[in-house]
Amino acid sequence: MTPAPDQRRRLAVGLALGVVLVAAAVGAIVTADNPAADSITMSATDVPTDSAALDSVDGAAAAPIGIALPDLEGQLGQNETEPTAPVEPERADGGCTIGALSIRLSSQGDGVACLQQALADKGIYSGAVDGDFDDPTLAAVMAYQETEGLFVDGVVGRESALELGIWPDEESFVVHTPPPANGAMDSTGYLLSPVASTGDDAPPLPPDSGSGRRVVYDRAGQRAWAVGGNGEIIRSWLVTGSTYSNERPGVHTVYSKSEMSTAWNGKAWLPLMIRYQKTEIGHIGFHAIPLHVADDSPYQTTDELGTRLSGGCQRQHNLDAKFLWAFADIGTTVVVT
Fold it and tell me: What dotted CATH number matches 14-78+174-336?
């Protein structure tokens, strides 16, 4: 028997917190296990553990944290507060999509009709295909989620929409810039990674992404920007964000930094962790590519930046992680679109 959503969430949170206490570590649940060796490789011993040493490698001292919840990179379900922000309803094969980052009870429109038709095609829904996310649609969604082993919450986000084949073509949102020249730097003197650009070479900022000195993270495009006080783009780079779209949009603030964080299950290192968002089950932030504790091998390659592989946090190339560590002090504004 599958536990109710609230029961499953409590069980997941209890398990996560219990392992954190046993491991005596603040960390993240790492789900994408794709070890590969390329230019992204960093050994855990490459990240200094004291602030003085970190200053010597162009870093900034970390603040004391005292955080009880784990850093979030885990398979604990879709975000239940995900808004119905519109996205381009395009799919690689031309078929319909849900037309939003998530839809739920009381949602309306073509995206809901697309969902209803997909459920009907699976033989799970027999109601009207009318674009109204009503109780029968909710029951069909939850039945489908239970059948497919998804988180049963009645919310159709990325995971459920992918299973149903009605999620937009993610690659169409991702902009790849040409690799910078060898040794190229941004205006602050930090080396550019192969997926980074600066100034006029960077993609434009998303609409309504705030003002002033800030970090901007666009979930659809899997891209981050560091913006100066005068609005100039100091640096822009691809990241690997959450599989579950559980990064909440809006304006946030960096509240904690750790030079090295460890995974809740004790199997991975998270170098240069910068936390800006607190959820009921853990913390979300930017960090370098996770490393396997067993052999220091990375969990993904440079080529995989720009795709969604994490459980919540934004993974970065090591050069971009070093830059952001210096740029994003405690109190820095982070805008998530």
Answer: 2.40.440.10
Exposure letters 227-252 (e unless 16+ CB within 10 A, then b) = beeeeebbbbbbbbbbbbbbbbbeeb
**Is residue 62 a contact partner of residue 295, using CB atoms and an 8 Å limit?**
no
Angle at 43 between CA 39 and CA 49, to 5 degrees: 130
pLDDT in tens, 147-195: 999 889 899 987 899 899 998 777 777 899 999 999 999 999 999 999 9
Q: Of 65, 63, 59, which is closest to residue 325 (Cα–Cα)?
A: 59
Tens digit of each residue's pLDDT (9 = 90 or more) over 36-75? 323 344 444 444 333 332 222 222 333 333 444 556 453 4
List helix spans (H) across the chain: 5-23, 51-55, 110-121, 135-148, 158-164, 318-327
CB 191 within 8 A of CB 41: no
Say which residues have a Cβ less than 8 Å from residue 242's Cβ, sequence separation at least 6: 219, 284, 308, 310, 311, 312, 313, 314
The reported pTM is: 0.65
* Contact predicate 216/224, CB 8 Å: yes
Architecture of the domain whose range is 89-167: Orthogonal Bundle (1.10)
Tell the burial category of 138 from Cβ atoms under 10 Å away from its Cβ (0-12, 13-18, 19+). middle
Structure tokens that stand for 67 in this block: 């955080």
